[in-house]
Amino acid sequence: MIAYITRRILYALPILVGVNVITFLLFFIVNSPDDMARMFLGEKHVTEQQIEDWKSERGYHYPLFYNTEKAGVEKITKTIFYIKSVRLFVFDFGRSDSGRDISFDISQRMWPSLAIAVPQLIIGLLVAITFALLIAFFRATYIDYWAVVICVALMSISSLFYIIGGQFIMSKVLRIVPISGFDSGFFGIKFLILPVMIGVVSGIGSSTRWYRTIFLEEINKDYVRTARAKGISEQVVLFRHVLRNALIPILTGVVVILPLLFMGSLITESFFGIPGLGSYTIDAISRQDFAIVRAMVFLGAFLYIIGLLLTDISYTIVDPRIRLG
Amino acid sequence: MLGACSDGVWNNPYPSESGTSNVIYSSFSERPKRLDPVSSYSASEYQFIAQIYEPPLQYHYLLRPYTLVPLTAKELPRVRYLNDNGEEVYQDQAAEIVFSEYTISIRPGIYYQPHPALAVDDENNPFYLSLTKADLKNVHTLDDFDHHGSRELTALDYVYQIKRIASPFLHSPIAGVMREYIVGFDEFRSRVDELYGDKDAAWHDLRPVDLAGVSTIDRYTYRIRIKGQYPQLVYWFAMPFFAPMPWEAEKFYSQPGMEERNISLNWYPIGTGPFMLTENNPNLRMVMEVNPNFHGERYPSQGEPADFEAGLLADANRQLPLVHKAVYSLEKENIPYWNKFLQGYYDASGVTSDSFDQAIQFSSTGDVQLTERMRNKGIQLETAIATSIFYMGFNMMDPVVGGYSQRARLLRRAISIAVDYEEYVSIFANGRGIASQGPIPPGIFGHIEGEKGVNPYVYDWVNGEPKRKSIEYAKELLAKAGYKDGIDAKTNRPLILNFDTPAASSDAKAQLNWMRKQYQKLGIQLVIRATDYNRFQEKMRNGTSQIFQWGWNADYPDPENFLFLLYGPNGKVKHHGENATNYASPEFDRLFEQMKNIKNSRKRLYIIQQMTEILRRDAPWLWGFHPKAFSLFHSWYKNVKPNLMANNLLKYKRVDGDLRKVKRAEWNQPNYYPLILLFVLLVVSFIPAVVEFYRRERSAMK
């Protein structure tokens, strides 16, 4: 197991380098360091000298990948890519282009993201599994048929529509919760209700369908047939045997997204004014703050790799027949 | 639980005590990047720092035209003009004036807000100016410091801030402008660079380095010496760039460990103004509360005649500020912003395109008025023409549309007639704007209303109003320019022009199509070259654009701030200035140099008229339009008068908290019956499942 984990971590290194290179290329194709300086310094009365000074203070005065003016190893080390990327691998995110400590900001802003994402995940999971089991119980009936139709309809609606519709109905027409905002502590719960509810409803169609498929696959297996042959009721078969075995793919599917919960949701956070990492990333992109963009992309890629690794490990825990080699 | 939070109103985003309190509730859509007055230069930043920092002057809240009055200064600056020998000369001896000297005296007894940088012990030793990293172990915000102190504002603080503008390490956006004028500016920069450039010094102490043109005379008086004349300098004295900065604050923030904790001047401002920032969370909320050390100021007792009728002088001579707190919530999206305003959770609002039809309607006579729904809520509307201009520019370096030949002028004039900006404003700005007759917007000296102010190359004066010349006349001009029916007589091919724009979104498509149709009226084919804003700027800097659209928002209410956009030595390509069209007319430039140095007078107006005539004749711009700002406010929000120059307006505002509480409760009673209905429906929807379940059970038993 340890050898496997070590190998996976080593595999992750070239992936992270690749992600970094792609982020770097995409960012600097659209924005030059001059553009970034102008964005930061504003448009009025800015001189070329001020732009040069701004770049040089932040290390953006170097070439992107290869410095022909330097000798030896400095041809590589005195480049924007090297200066901005190497420290990421020891999780030193450095300072944003506006001078703030990125690690500190991440540590502050991940909590609002988690405050939305965790209840959304748990409630969404419970609701979707319950519905999927019910549909599986009534499989091949008109209930199953209409439930699938409703699920497909729910999946077809844009998440933006759920947000705007939810805000309109719950906050404007019914006036039950605030339309947007965030706060900490007990008072802050009222701000979580609507985004969590919308997150659950918008995801219910796809997850219910997926879990239904898993349950139906499980229902047709031999051990279920044996259980039925023994005279065990359909409810007991479904809730005791099928559910337990179907949890393996469900849990492994959940484990992969667990680390990404930190990253927040871009649209939800923007519409509800939630100061999480999703809006942090969006703000950085609109401000052309490369330091934050690269840090967040790196963090996202790293967490995704961790998620995949945890999935593999979770397989071995829930199914002892599996060995990682 | 929801009801318990906030007086029975469930959707209140504020704590329950918020209703009646003397607090203003507002919003911001863009987080401020910097709160240091040396570098802040955007509206999103001025919204906050203008309430905290106090430059020596400010704009009178009610008087128009915009009038400068003292803020921390005792009086307006005294100006002396000096010749090369340092002898005083009169202003009308312009040829002899080599220096101008501004002397500013500030009022004694003004104190800074409480701040740890100014905290001292009984022996006057600062508590927190020699900190180590270890001392900051448990410090995360300024509130974590036990001691907060204050001290009196002195002239030295103003001088220190001007040195900060000149510092090569602080990147003040106005350093480029000020180096042209302030004596010794470049030398100061060089010396600071020599002193600190090679060292990794955390604090660049600017006190020991002399800036020749700026000095203190006594504890409360300082002097600024500039090269030649620059009468517009006084307007800069009303901007936060020239607000005081105590050196202790700079030293405090530069100590080891502060930066890692994000404790900086950009995050924690320190000023003498009526408010201080008590919560700075630009990702969620900014809160300002009254500065307990505020020196006191009275609500103005003078105003325009209409101000008396509008009740704007009801608070005359009252002690400012009139509210004790202002809460600004981050609101990035228009829909929640607008709905919260309608629910009474924001006291005032702008009018976005999304909400325009809900809020505004035009009467049969074309007058703007509120819809019935808004009137029923007691909402009021204020409009003001912004001191801004959105124009379409021709690159004067371009061989087709540029240049100063009669052919090029006629081509540009024909296009000026064809592009119908009245229609543009009506379609794309919901009527919020007026077509421009020249570069100077209403409210700025040099703008002339009525027949005399009309651009005769584009409009006729018919029945008491300007009427755009006919398209037939424009076609005649085009034919004279050598492009009959849009065909280039030299090549016998259609005239194709390129329009560079950063507007590449789907929303902009309708505008660009409209623009194409305007050119088609003349038979000219307009090619849209849409790109991102960075590439667009690059084209402008390189002079590779042909036609473009841009805008300008006034820094100060002086015609110089608009006419300089067409001054030759400000050309963008050659001089990296703000003259984006690269227009260079020796005649215009000569008049500009005369005009910029004289006070508003008949003589100045005459020169401006001459300059405007040259511009209209040459037509380097399609004069575009001046936008009109619409703002809505609730009945409990008092003392609202648009002032497009001043930013420190929060202190004048007042709220009727009792009325607000009543209205909020009236408008936001929860309606939970549909939820009960929804629950019942949900239960009913399970009935088929239950029926099916029992059917199965029965069939299994059989």
What's the quick description here?
The complex is a heterodimer of chains A (325) and B (702). By secondary structure, chain A is mostly helical. Chain A has 14 helices and no strands.
Structural write-up:
By secondary structure, chain A is an all-alpha fold. Chain A is 72% helix and 0% strand. The relative contact order of chain A is 0.13. Chain B contains 23 helices and 29 strands. The two termini of chain B are 50 Å apart. Chains A and B meet through helix 2, helix 3, helix 6, helix 8 and helix 9 of A and helix 4, helix 9 and helix 23 of B.
Structural descriptors:
heterodimer; A: 325 residues; mainly alpha; B: alpha+beta; 8-stranded mixed beta sheet; 23 helices; 29% helix; disordered N terminus
| Model regions low in confidence, pLDDT < 50 over at least 5 residues of chain A | none
- Described by the principal axes of the CA atoms, the overall outline of chain A is globular
Rg of chain A (CA only): 25 Å
Overall mean pLDDT of chain B: 92
Mean pLDDT of chain A: 87
Total strands of chain A:
0
Tell me the distance between the termini of chain B: 50 Å
By DSSP, the count of extended strands of chain B is 29
What's the number of helices of chain B? 23
Q: How does the major sheet of chain A shape up?
A: none
Overall geometric form of chain B: globular
User: Which sheet architecture does the biggest sheet of chain B show?
Assistant: 8 strands, mixed
What is the beta-strand fraction of chain B?
15-25%
By secondary-structure content and strand pairing, the structural class of chain B works out as alpha+beta
List the helices and strands and how they pair.
The complex is a heterodimer of chains A (325) and B (702).
Chain A: H1 2-30, H2 33-41, H3 48-58, H4 74-77, H5 80-85, H6 102-137, H7 142-156, H8 159-173, H9 189-219, H10 222-229, H11 234-257, H12 266-272, H13 277-286, H14 290-318
Helix pairs in contact in A: 1-14, 2-3, 6-9, 7-9, 8-9, 9-11, 11-14, 12-13, 13-14
Chain B: H1 2-5, E1 23-28, H2 43-52, E2 57-59, E3 68-70, E4 78-82, E5 88-89, E6 99-105, H3 155-166, H4 175-178, H5 185-196, E7 214-218, E8 221-227, H6 233-236, H7 247-253, E9 275-281, E10 285-290, E11 297-298, H8 305-309, E12 319-320, E13 325-330, H9 334-342, E14 348-350, H10 353-359, E15 360-362, E16 368-370, H11 372-376, E17 380-385, E18 388-394, H12 406-418, H13 421-428, E19 433-435, E20 459-462, E21 465-468, H14 471-480, E22 487-488, E23 493-494, E24 496-501, H15 509-520, E25 525-530, H16 533-542, E26 547-553, H17 560-563, H18 572-575, H19 586-595, H20 602-618, E27 621-633, E28 637-638, E29 654-655, H21 657-667, H22 673-685, H23 687-701
Parallel strand pairs in B: 1-13, 24-25, 24-26
Antiparallel strand pairs in B: 2-3, 4-5, 4-6, 6-8, 7-8, 9-10, 10-13, 11-12, 14-27, 15-16, 17-27, 18-26, 18-27, 19-27, 20-21, 22-23, 28-29
Helix pairs in contact in B: 12-14, 19-20
